[in-house]
Amino acid sequence: MPNLEHPAYPAATLLRLESMVPCRESQVSMLLSIFGERQQFTFPSIFIYGHTSSGKTYVMQTLLNTLQLPHVFVNCVEHFTSRLLLEEILIQLQTCSSETAPTSRVLCDTFNDFVRLFKQAVTSQDLQDQTVYIVLDRAEQLREMEANILPAFLRLQELTDRNVTVVLLSEIVWELFRPSTGCFEPLTLYFPDYSIGHLQKILSNNHPPEYSADFYAAYINILLGVFYMVCRDLKELQHLAALNFSKYCEPVVRGEANERDTRKLWKNIEPHLKKAMQTVYLREISSSQWERLQQDDGDPGQLKGLSAHAHVELPYYSKFLLIAAYLASYNPVRTDKRFFLKHHGKIKKTNFMKKHEKTSNHLLGPKPFPLDRLLAILYSIVDNRVAPTANIFSQISSLVTLQLLSMVGHNDQLDGPRYKCTVSLDFIRAIAR
């Protein structure tokens, strides 16, 4: 018996929709009940949120395309200004009910112009008798635009006096959107994370035709057993499943094992999955490089990506500045005299460490330091004399831009800015060599 039922849509269409959105039937059923029939006025604005890769974008696109509802789908990261966003909505609306290209470029500078042009577009496309859906993906970017954009979208149905619903898709909760001046509250809908059973079902649907479904399901079960505790991202797991399946099949291809010999198959794939654990989310090497490395039985550490130390080239004094910043972040101030002065006098052999200082500084994280302390340590670790020129200060700004240092204070403070070193000990060791 199908889970999706609605009198306004054919049963065959709903059955096809259900097969395309596995493990999201309850969310789709909720959306169908909210949308109602094509000609009915629905809720003015809907806010859908959930963690990354929880199916928000895919479900909305599949639902609107399968039911052939008039809609506009815009990514707010790609259209990062209000003008680009409004113009893109109007351009897509011109081709909403037909496949013809827009007749002319749309110019829209303000939201008042958008309301006027939106009414014209709805009339020209003959969409007055059905709901038009405007879906704004990555909607958290709206908070960076003008203050009137988000409240206006939430009550667009009232402003245009047309049958339109705005759907906001985001990874953050509504409380972080709500303006301090107040706004129309949207209907919120939560997409929970996929459970391990859901991931097993979704990933098993992509089995290659030359192998049985049970064989591929056993492979997915092994993959999730290794990666589920560190990675719940469906897209990343799909990538890992496609990347390592050929290695899992090797004993079967060579005739050394059959599809039911799970022990031999696990022994063959185990070392390669352990190597893949080192590059989850990082993408330090490409898929072709990874496959080549598997054939050669090499170590993924042999191929370094953009984040590797070998690819970081800094000017001469920037390296010393970074080393000095690391020393200033992880060494207490009271040790500077002992470490960086040649004639620091006699030091008493007393246990002056406080209780909270007995913990490793690397576990406590970097501490902020002032600019003058950074320069003082720099002068002590560089062999030749360094003049405090504009070149040195510009290199500090460059390190902040590269996010190797982070600024804690501000330039307008009386005691000057304070910084933190954000790189690891291995990074500093590589530079120090």
UniProtKB/TrEMBL annotation:
GO molecular function terms noted in the UniProt entry: ATP binding; DNA replication origin binding
Record-level GO BP terms: DNA replication initiation
Superkingdom to which the source organism belongs: Eukaryota
Predominant location: nucleus
GO CC aspect terms: nuclear origin of replication recognition complex
ORC5 lid domain boundaries: 216-283
Span of domain Orc1-like AAA ATPase: 21-167
Location of the protein in the cell: Nucleus
Cross-referenced Pfam families: AAA_16, ORC5_C, ORC5_lid
Keywords: ATP-binding, DNA replication, Nucleotide-binding, Nucleus
Chain ranges of the Origin recognition complex subunit 5 C-terminal domain: 314-433
Subunit comment: Component of ORC, a complex composed of at least 6 subunits: ORC1, ORC2, ORC3, ORC4, ORC5 and ORC6. ORC is regulated in a cell-cycle dependent manner. It is sequentially assembled at the exit from anaphase of mitosis and disassembled as cells enter S phase.
Function: Component of the origin recognition complex (ORC) that binds origins of replication. DNA-binding is ATP-dependent. The specific DNA sequences that define origins of replication have not been identified yet. ORC is required to assemble the pre-replication complex necessary to initiate DNA replication.
Homology family: Belongs to the ORC5 family.
Stored PANTHER family: ORIGIN RECOGNITION COMPLEX SUBUNIT 5
Protein name, as recorded: Origin recognition complex subunit 5
